[in-house]
Amino acid sequence: YSILDFDEPGVLDFVRRVWDFDPVRHLERCRCPILAVWGADDTIVPVERSRAIFAEALGARAELVVLPGADHQLRVEQDAWGSAALPLIADWIRSRAAGA
Known about the structure:
Helix content is 44%, strand content 12%. By secondary structure, the protein is of the alpha+beta class. Strands 1-2 form a two-stranded parallel ribbon.
């Protein structure tokens, strides 16, 4: 089963909910530090448009990062899911914990 198999009712429901979701009202209410990460080679999410929406809604409260060569799952080539972002996320958390 692939997420691209749109003939499954569960997949169609998931796609409908994602398609209709507008994150802006939720982002604008958020008051905690935020790290948002996209893969530059994502073929599912419009990366620059998404980044611009986050930047406008969050301003300086967020660190917005586009990882070169990473896909939608934040993988570079055939690495494990999210592995391209793990050092970035770990460093970000450590820096926030050190400042607390």
